[in-house]
Every structure is written in structure tokens, then in C-alpha cells.
Design brief:
Elements (H helix, E strand, L loop, with lengths): L11 E4 L3 E5 L10 E5 L14 H6 L10
Antiparallel strand pairs: 1-2, 2-3
């Protein structure tokens, strides 16, 4: 969800120090499959797939998540 309350469902992403590029499964209303979003404009990210804890530590998160 962006700071403008825009939800952008995505299937993949890449990032650098300040930006995230998300890729959609299907195009949006104007035909775009990708969006470039500054990190400062992201309010939160919902993740519907199971992500291994190692992926979060690679992002710099610390701590552990329970196994579900």
C-alpha cells in the first residue's frame, strides 16, 4: 500500500537503496505491468506467500519468526 492508499498487487520485485520496482501478474487499467516506487512512499507490504526467514535476515531484519 502506498502513502496515496494505492494497492499494487505484485508477483516479483527488485530494489536498490531508495526504490522498489514491482511487477504485476496482469497489467493495470492503463496497461502497466511494472511500477517504480520510492521506499518513502510505501506504507506497508502484505505478503501472501510463505517467505523463508532467511529472506528477511538478508533485508537486515533481526529476530526470529515462529514456524507455522
Amino acid at each position: 500500500m502506498t502513502e496515496l492508499n494505492e494497492s499494487i498487487p505484485f508477483v516479483g520485485f527488485v530494489y536498490d537503496d531508495t526504490l522498489m520496482v514491482v511487477q504485476r501478474q496482469t497489467p493495470d487499467a492503463i496497461g502497466a505491468r511494472q511500477a517504480i516506487i520510492p521506499f518513502r512512499a510505501i506504507s506497508y507490504i502484505k505478503i501472501t506467500a510463505i517467505v523463508l526467514p532467511k529472506a528477511y535476515t538478508e533485508f537486515g531484519f533481526k529476530g526470529t519468526l515462529p514456524k507455522v
